[in-house]
Amino acid sequence: MPYRLPPLTTLRPFEAAGRHLSFKRAAEELNLTPSAVSHALQTLEDWLGTPLFTRGHRSLSLTAAGEAYLPEVRGMLERLATVTAALPGRAPSGRLAVSVAPTFGLRWLVPRLPRFSDLYPDITLTLDTSHRPADLPRDGVDVAIRMRQDDWRPAERADLHAIRLVREVLVPVCAPALAARVTSPADLADLPLLHVDSVTEEWAAWEAATGVELGLPRRGVRFDTVHMALEAAVSGLGIAMGRLPLVAADLSAGRLAAVLGPPRPISTGYWLITSRAGRNRPEVAAFRTWIQAELGSQLPV
Question: Are the CB atoms for 98 and 285 separated by under 8 Å?
Fold first, then answer.
């Protein structure tokens, strides 16, 4: 039977304008002019026979009809985008937005992205580094990579799907010249330790795992990020607690040297999070397969 539908080209401008409560911001998002957005909304209102917005001199608000219509239109657009993206047989050739924890992005992911681009040149990748929770898919993120505990699950969000990519492994690291002075735990007594205040498992966790007593807390330079501490270690400032896979490239390149092994697994790791509806999109599936293969190829120190 024929469907009685509103003009479909007016629905995206309506959803964007309703979300932003701004014709200008909706126009910027959709790469249109504000007048084109205004015209589309007037066309939709004329077709419906009721106003969706109350237009003030410097304000825009939804009417009762607009408030009721917006979530329905948004849900329809999200569903249409999802089933289109997951169409069987479609080649991975669209946009992929990845939100990644900053240190993992800087030290592990970004150096390897050329390999992903070589494999999938038709995927347009955008990267955002953030610790904040990603509201998939409504904030435009397809894949989020976050550090979480082993037993973490997104139980509060039944619409999300998560897999653990890799468990973190602790290994003390320092510049090669400094490493030559470390042959036993006793050598640490006369050397500066670098500390990171923003992590839960560091020197104390390594101490507990190895049975080595360092006499913590110890004096030493303190940092707010793992990335800064590792760069300080590269510069020879002291011994940092390295975390695999974050230091894998530094160890391979000889920028850092591991001391007092073997590496010790801990309870934190990196998780890949997607929406359940979008996890089989060709672009998402390609990225998931690639990153699992890359992490799987990491050799222990």
Answer: no
